[in-house]
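G.,

No rush on this.
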Amino acid sequence: MKYKKIIIFIIAVLFFLCLYSCTDKQNIELAITSENEETTDMNDSSVPENNIADTDTNKNESAVEPTEPAEPEIIEVFQAPDIPADFAAANITDIAQGITFDTCFRRGVNMGNMLESPDEGAWGVYFEPEYFALIKQRGFDFVRLPVGWGNHLMLKGDTITIEKKFLERVKYIVDEAVKNDLGIIINIHHYNDMDDYPEKYAERLYKIWRIISTSFQNYPANVVFEIFNEPHNALDTKTWNQYQNECIKIIRETNPSRKIVVTAGDWGGISGIMDLMIPEDENLILSFHCYDPFNFTHQGAEWSDNMDQYLGTEWTGTEFEKKALDNSFRFVKAWSEATGLPVLLGEFGAYSKADMESRINWTAYMREIAEYYGFAWSYWEFCAGFGIYDPNAEEFFEELADALTGTPLNENNYATGIGMPKITAERGLGYFGPFKTERNINIICDSWTGMSLYDTENGTQIIDLGENSVVDWAQAFIILDNLTDTGDGFSHDKCELTIRNINNSITDFCFNLDNNGDFETSIGWYDEKSLKSNTKNIIQNDDGTVTFIFELNKVYRQFKDKCENGIRLKMFIESVPDRVKNYDRQGSVEFIKVELK
């Protein structure tokens, strides 16, 4: 009996010890579980490294815990990558010395149809990792990366952000360029909303640049920013100035010395650069695009209207063809001399529907003339419709690529070209512009109508009509800067235009008054016979020149309240109207002066 009580006591003690042990273990497991859950909650508030895209998330507290982490909230500005301090400091020194663009950006190519498309691959082209090594080996020293940021904006209330996956893709491509010792220009491309409705979309443009400039602020000096590609539609240069300058201010908050590429409105061409107003910032670069003659470079282009009619247009490198391009480049060089800023020929190229020999001829001359005037250049583009590389065959179009980099840079000839005509810039309050030319007459030439414009050393201009014209009449405009609408009539009664008909080669002139918009009316027509007459409207001068006299107020009623865009004298010029070949003609006319009286 005694032993039985002892046995029962021992069993009871063992039972309670076992019960206590199980309870303590359960408490420990609960504590570990609680700690892990707390850690998981903390981690859920950050962005996973492999997150694909940031999206809005509405959390339901009563919902069953998901098996995968919930998508994170949008981060407004992404952090720049960590770069060793000594490396970053070296890059800052490079920027401060101003050596990056002038010495490391000379020959480049556009990575077109990739990231500016609605989604990468939508236009049949993807960036491949091996591309930059091929580009470097081919003799290029930089690339231009068109980026369609506007296709990847995310809106949450008043917050505007960029898809994380897309930003990381851009960063990856920039990293690859840096690894391959290539400079790279990042731009905003095809942001059509801004082109059409700038007042509405300007804040989004500014936000994009805050994100870009913050994300890349610690990158090397050979990463360059370009504010906008080809502003157009509502963004003429005078309108574009305010938006571009605000973007420069934003970039300078985080990138005080980084090179920034600026451009004029009106499709980023040459015609708009005189209206530019830009900060006196030595780290700016002017970009312009040149696809002249357009009927050659864009023949058969599906995205432009009626370009099939120009199929078969050749470019053989005649004196007329070269002279037209040379005069445009001389003009941009004069602008560069007036500001002291370098120039980038940001885009030029000939579409694949032109014959290859003409493409090679034109491309080689464009490269040659750009280097003669000291312009960096980036060909449009690498591996699509204008491309120098066939991604399917994985090989270059050898002769076309050689037209760009097959000839070594001629250091003795580089940047020796002189600008013309002389250009001066208004200066004040830390800004350049607008700009003025020291010309007797200011003419805009429609090169696609089969003509070229050339400045002379005495301030006059010569228009040459040449072969390969695609219309019956060549067109040009004289800007009548001081002609205004007073409300009762034009500010001047008469316009007098003096010309020299070289070798009497021009047979017909038609003059219209034009409001630089949607209205024009005829004010004079002269054929071969009347060009040699003496009347109250045309005077034969003793020095062989001819003066046309236009009575402006005879047509004022038609222009009343329609002159907000200025007034131009529009000219249709013809030679050899009875020529055998419809588009085979030649003729020259020198424009001496225009006067308002």
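When you get to it, here's the other one too:
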Amino acid sequence: MNYKDFVALIYKNESLKDNTPKENEKELDEENQEQKVEEKNIEEEKENNVKEDKEGKENDNEEIDHIDELILNIRNKLAKRGLLNLINIESRFRELDEDNTQELDIKSFSQICSEFDFGLSNEEIEELFVSFDKDERGLINYDDFIRVLRGELNENRKELIHNVFKHLDIDNKGSLSVEELLNLYLAKNSYEFIQEKKSEDEAMKIFEQSLKGNHKYLNGDEADTKNIDIEEFEDFYESVSIMIPNDDLFKEIVLRSWGLLKDDPKEEEELNKEENIEEENMEKDKEINNEEEQEINEEVVENEPKEEIKKENINKKKIIDKEIEFRKEILKEENIDIFRDKLGAKGIITVMNFLSQLKQYDRKGDKELSLPDFSEIILNTKVIISEEEIEELFSDFCKDNKQAKTINYELFLNKLIIELNPRRENIVKVAFDKLDTEKCGIINLSEIKTFFSSKNCPLVYAAIMSEEDFYNSFTESFLTHHNIYRSAKIKKVNYNEFYDYYKYVSITINDDYLFEETVISSWKLSKDATAFIGPKDNVKEIIGNPSLEKPNNEEMKSMFKSAKKSFPKKESYSIWCR
């Protein structure tokens, strides 16, 4: 290599060294830009995914609400058709289950929906089926569907059923045969006899077929050899339960059906005598045992204080403690009764505002309220009540007396807003049945406003309120209740909601007849609608009118006029509008 070539080579290498960093910098810039673009795309994808998830959740919630509504519609229909209809549905499911897998496809499910007239469109049947097809195999477990359709017994009903079974199971075997239960059952005290006006023989036949049908459904081929245990007894009463929304009526019918609630005073006396004899015998045995123990103690320990004195003091303390607790319970009931009367006197709008504020002040969503919040809510109602009375009312519902800082307002409401008596419940049911023109257990919210009439309302009739005021007070209070009970989005009302609304109305109207006339006039019911359908043996006592006759028009007019005069100010008797 000559000198000239050598120099050229050197310069070439130098030029390469100078250019390399520049080229590297350009490449780095390009890479950074590409990375930024990629990161931006990833962020946009994340945002889109979050939005899709939110939309998906909203759609899921809407679907769940719709499914609940479909199930509620079917449940209300079945409740009206009686116990045997539901048992027949269970039996039909098992008949179509040829492989005995407790699973059915969409075809068999659709067949049952049509046979038993669930009132569903093809799209709704498919939607309901898909909601129960959790693993998307095209099959559903029909037992899961039946259990959701019936609903579970609440804790009070469950405890009642368990106690009844234990009482019937006198030998403590843990199970009873079908024949034993049929022999013990009193059809003359059944729901079918009392409420559905069936004959005693018909009622007994319905019970026998239902009991055997449910037993066959649960046990299949083993039904003939297997007894009924407490779980199956509870399962049977889950079917019974959907027909009787009122807990008190459910309890009364169950107890009467098994002869645990006596009507005949002589039977009651005999039962009490037997119980008293047993108690006396037990007390005598205890006394003998105590005397023997006392003699032994006296022999062993002569110088120590006698045990019987200690026992006597302990027993006295227990008696005093029980008496104190009993008095506290009485005072608690008196406090809530007084507040209920004062709140009810303010009218349905105030009552609904009170309910609404309880929900609004529940900021954590745990249904707990502090004393300051509870006091503020009550003071907002303008009810005349002292701070001491509010604190006393608050302490009555504390979890741990006055040491607790909050109360559960749902428990408070359960005590404050009591169940309708049978007479009031009857007229509310008649009103709902009239509005439920399609007999599906659901009423459109718009139809309720259309059907409602304030023209012949007792308060309008007596010139206490104008038609417009009464109509406005109803629509405002009913919508407030609907938004709390269900949701503003759902434009339909079921019987449970309708009944619950009238529980709140009920505390504003003390007189049964006035409540009855208010409902009759509001929904343009016939005068025959007041025929009471409760237990025959205590109709007069419940109605509160021995002759069961209603006042004529002139008597009614003077009744309301005299009521009007007895109030010094208009606000005092406007029980709906305040």
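DSSP finds 26 helices and nine strands in the chain. Residues 14-22, 299-304, 531-552, 560-578 have pLDDT under 50 and may be disordered.

Enjoy the weekend,
O.
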